Amino acid sequence: MRRFHPTEGARVRLVCLPHAGGSATAYFPLSATAAGQDFEVVAVQYPGRQDRRAEPCLDTVAAIADAIADDLAGWSDLPVALFGHSMGATVGYEAARRLEARGNPPLGLFASACRAPSAHRIEFIHQRDDDGLIAALKELSGTDAGVLGDDELLRMVLPAIRGDYTAVETYRHLPGVEPSCPIQVLVGDTDPVTDLDEAGAWRNHTTGPCQVKIFPGGHFYLNDQLNAVLKTITTTLAAWQPGIYRG
């Protein structure tokens, strides 16, 4: 867990899960924008990247979700809400299932730019060669432009990216108890990866309420919509746990 901006007096911890190929620093802008709120942003650093680059990647959603659920046992001083973007939303959903089974369900799940777990597509990006994998990254524009322009650096992080794509593309939703926590879906109106029907299908994956919020933009809409996303997070958290916010 990486906490970029400690928040004194925080009443909720928002645990953020990166997209495929992403790292904890993907949420640094959200953390900075949220400074002064009554919740704190904590981002998960998956193994195989940045300061964990020497560690082997986890290449199944189940393994990542298991590790996160285990780690969150040490962060029980505050109610936890999960925010996952793209692959991170699927990981967050599976982590929520595990937390629910342990009797400690999250306050809620923000599922951003991600098809519902049961809205599966057959994809094989993880089986492409390095050039094909790089082309897929450039199509979505989710990887830092400095990384995409530095061939040596890009190829250094490709194992982690391939591991993440393997996790996403081999994931299959298994029947079982769905989380009871509410789900707030966020999606860009021109997202080429997640259409609105697939986003709406998240309603089938909670026994609680589920709402869909549409933003202008593509798969990485949140890069340009930080203030609007922050407003949605703040009002949603307040609705999930009334009375905890000043406003």
UniProtKB/TrEMBL annotation:
Query: Family, per the entry?
Result: Belongs to the thioesterase family.
User: Could you tell me one molecular function GO term of this UniProt entry?
Assistant: hydrolase activity
Which keywords accompany this UniProt record? Hydrolase
Q: Which residues form a coiled coil?
A: none
Q: What is the lineage of its organism?
A: Bacteria, Bacillati, Actinomycetota, Actinomycetes, Pseudonocardiales
What is the top-level taxon of the source organism? Bacteria
Q: Which PANTHER family match?
A: S-ACYL FATTY ACID SYNTHASE THIOESTERASE, MEDIUM CHAIN, THIOESTERASE
Q: What is this protein called?
A: Thioesterase
Organism from which the protein derives: Amycolatopsis dendrobii
The UniProt record lists the keyword rRNA-binding: no
Transmembrane stretches, start-end: none
